[in-house]
Amino acid sequence: MSTSDQYKREIMKDLAGGNKEILEPNGNDALGEKYQSFDDFADRSSRDERHGLIKRSFNPQNVPAAQMDPELKQAINKIKPNERDDVARDFFKHLKERGLSDKDLEKRLGLSTHNPKRMNGDDVGKLASFAYTAHPDIFQEVLADQPAILKFLSNPLVGAALGAIAAKWLHK
């Protein structure tokens, strides 16, 4: 059994047994009651709600890059091409503000192009993985602005990252 499969089984076992992370008391604990499912959360939540939850949940300390990278690539390949363009454009915009040019990132990450409209899912996945490990704050900003990716992350990853709220949704 692969490490990823074992990790997913452990998460599902913990969630099924009620072993879950308690969220900080900042008002977001009620999100599990406000939204029917994770897809509903991704569709209807405000940017601030998404950002607060993503900031606490999706970072290399909580979910290792080795676990997140394949999930990101899979999720990005499932979103619509125009949404994928928007995601790439957002990553490039934020990374440019840090002094990383589109062309430098193309060379550094081995992208097929630096034009967001021509990028395939693999290119955007590399860009997202880079941001996740090297600039987690940028990753969190883009995820909060582009919730389409959230809908396609696997349930075990969502469960690991979002703890108590995901547990409520996964049990429905």
TrEMBL record:
Source domain of life: Bacteria
Listed name of the protein: Uncharacterized protein
